[in-house]
Amino acid sequence: xxxxxxxxxxxxxxxxxxxxxxxxxxxxxxxxxxxxxxxxxxxxxxxxxxxxxxxxxxxxxxxxxxxxxxxxxxxxxxxxxxxxxxxxxxxxxxxxxxxxxxxxxxxxxxxxxxxxxxxxxxxxxxxxxxxx
Length: 132
Known about the structure:
- By secondary structure, the protein is mostly helical.
- It has one domain (13-131).
- The chain is built from seven helices and no strands.
- The longest helix has 35 residues, at 2-36.
- The chain crosses the membrane at residues 58-82.
- It is a multi-pass membrane protein.
């Protein structure tokens, strides 16, 4: 019984880690686009987040898993593609707050582009939020 439990737990841990990684990646990309891309990008991403939060979560997850063919791949895609909106909203708010910090403003005025400022100043500050 213990061996069967360990084998099942191994699969569950793999599914959990892959889906968390996929969901976090989507959330970071969309949160950064919303916070740093300007008002049009912010409105589009915020609308997309609200759309996903407003949908019935379980039904959408089952639909994605069914379309993906079921199995482990379907579960990973279903969970990974439906669990990003709340993290994206949180990351967006944190990046918008960090974008007004003095050290970010100084780095922008010294000639760094948005992407370099994001990678060197903002992402390290948001990293703990992503990991949790």
